[in-house]
Automatic annotation (TrEMBL):
Keywords: Membrane, Transmembrane, Transmembrane helix. The chain crosses the membrane at residues 20-44, 308-330. This is Cache domain-containing protein. It comes from the Bacteria. It comes from Paenibacillus radicis.
């Protein structure tokens, strides 16, 4: 059985419901900019943080590289000062030219060596000097040439004949490639020999100061932003001085690093090493031509940005919930007067 007046009333209710939904949708549509702004703000913040992240890594690497350069420069200056010392100039001479008076004063040379060695002991392993193939002077005294290089301080790459021929070199200062050295057949270290040659009494005096690679490692790690950061140091001949983590044993090589940073000295890039993504920063030494690279896992940056992502999502969720609640509240406030007017008109039309 049909009730008179029911159909018009049902139609009115349907229109009113559509009106309410339309008003609500208009208010809800205002939430779309919140989502867009939230996403944009997140990516903008991540971009800024990534630039800051890369800048910090590059800046710290540059600072550490400057410290290493300063150590090498100080070492070089100390060696030069020793060779130009007046006492050294008067006492250091080939054994066959030494008079009794000179031999009586030779004890002064180890003392001067000890004094100079104390200045740079923080970042060097040892220093020694010779002017012939007979004796080698160290801070502890005098050693026979062959015995010193074959037993007491044996280089992996440089034997006694190499050091004998070094007296004929025309290079005043030379940084040799890194080498392993065995001290007294027990202690093993990695060193970078710095060779300084000066002519004394028509003979070439050779001063050798060994930079301890561990000092380079500690200096670089001490300036690192993250403990997981690793380093690679290449000398002017693109030979590895330091690569404790073996980054150059895989697809990455000294040549590929040079290609990646060609024309972008002092910058940073994202590279894949053994299947893992790294932010690699590069600094080149202006003094000695060494290349310093830092390898920081990209995961460190992702951990760095998790807080921003969580904060952005939380803020967006809070704003969305508040927006939905206010949308319903304002929709009802706008809709109720319209509904009441509609109901009143309907009652007058269908008494």
């Amino acid at each position: 059985m049909k009730i008179p007046g029911m159909k018009p009333f049902s139609g009115m209710q349907s229109k009113q419901n559509r009106l309410f939904l339309t008003i609500l949708c208009y208010f809800l549509s205002l939430l779309i900019p919140i989502v867009i702004i939230g996403i944009s703000e997140y990516w903008y913040s991540v971009s800024l943080m990534k630039n800051e992240f890369n800048q910090r890594i590059s800046t710290n690497l540059d600072s550490s590289a400057n410290s290493v350069d300063s150590y090498i420069k100080t070492t070089q200056e100390t060696g030069v000062n020793f060779l130009f010392d007046d006492t050294v100039q008067s006492l250091l001479m080939p054994k066959n030219l030494q008079s009794l008076e000179v031999r009586a004063e030779l004890w002064r040379l180890p003392r001067i060596l000890q004094r100079n060695e104390n200045i740079i002991s923080k970042f060097t392993d040892s220093m020694f000097v010779y002017i012939d193939n007979q004796d080698v002077y160290v801070s502890g005294g005098v050693n026979y040439f062959e015995s010193f290089f074959n037993n007491l301080y044996k280089y992996d790459k440089y034997d006694a004949s190499y050091w004998m021929n070094k007296q004929r070199s025309d290079k005043g200062v030379e940084l040799l490639p890194v080498t392993k050295v065995v001290q007294e057949k027990i202690h093993v270290k990695q060193v970078v020999p710095i060779v300084i040659i000066n002519r004394i009494r028509n003979h070439n005096a050779v001063m050798v100061v060994n930079i301890d690679v561990q000092t380079i490692e500690k200096t670089l790690q001490g300036g690192a932003v993250f403990g997981s950061t690793g380093f690679v140091v290449l000398d002017g001949n693109r030979e590895a001085i330091y690569d404790a983590n073996g980054y150059l044993n895989g697809t990455v090589t000294a040549a590929s690093l040079n290609t990646a940073f060609e024309g972008n000295i002092g910058s940073s890039k994202e590279l894949t090493v053994s299947g893992k993504r790294y932010v690699v920063a590069h600094v080149k030494s202006d003094l000695y031509g060494w290349d310093y690279y830092s390898f920081t896992p990209l995961d460190e940056f992702n951990h760095y940005t998790v807080g921003i992502l969580q904060m952005t999502l939380l803020l967006c969720i809070v704003l969305m919930v508040m927006g939905i609640v206010f949308s319903f509240v304002f929709s009802f406030r706008i809709y109720n007067p319209i509904r009441n007017i509609g109901t009143l008109l309907h009652r007058r039309a269908y008494p």
